[in-house]
Prior knowledge:
Radius of gyration of chain A: 13 Å
Number of strands of chain A: 11
Helix content of chain A: under 10%
Largest sheet of chain B: 6 strands, mixed
Shape of chain A: globular
Oligomer: heterodimer
Structural class of chain A: mainly beta
Largest sheet of chain A: 7 strands, mixed
Helix content of chain B: under 10%
Amino acid sequence: GAVVSQHPSRVICKSGTSVKIECRSLDFQATTMFWYRQFPKQSLMLMATSNEGSKATYEQGVEKDKFLINHASLTLSTLTVTSAHPEDSSFYICSARVLAGTGELFFGEGSRLTVL
Amino acid sequence: AQKVTQAQTEISVVEKEDVTLDCVYETRDTTYYLFWYKQPPSGELVFLIRRNSFDEQNEISGRYSWNFQKSTSSFNFTITASQVVDSAVYFCALSESVSGGGADGLTFGKGTHLIIQP
């Protein structure tokens, strides 16, 4: 089946630094990728929709200057958490929609961010 | 606006019992997708099923079965003869269908934590 890879799977950083998380579709092209955030013991919340070659669409309440999304190619989207603070500590998961066929969605393994 | 309700926060059963996880959804769209995912403690989401709004047939896959009822806006998930390895958080999710097919960003329910005791 299609594979979506996220890197890094875990990251610990100091408060005030920026962290970049990559989401790659390994064996298919994806014009659209989605970024979700999941706080401990809670559900996944859609943060933004990332479209290749255009600006991301952010959900209400998500700061676009805080969470920078770049979707430079059909196989890669990146999420940069800028000036991270402890409240940004969370599990970030991406999903990618297959360009062709039935437009299925595939999820990455997730990236756990801990901000000290 | 879309909404997914999983009223059962946590369910605990003894191994080999059957268990049903409820999912009720709200949407104004006539074309949409429904999903179930399993999330073990490791965190990754394991895809279980995707069903589009025009396909109301129930589905069975091994010990798993799904009951889709548009009349009650429900998409319930049953595990037969549960096993300890089934212990996880299960999420029901809903998505609009975008032009050309395919699902849009998902709206997840809050999840049901299923505990299977040996």
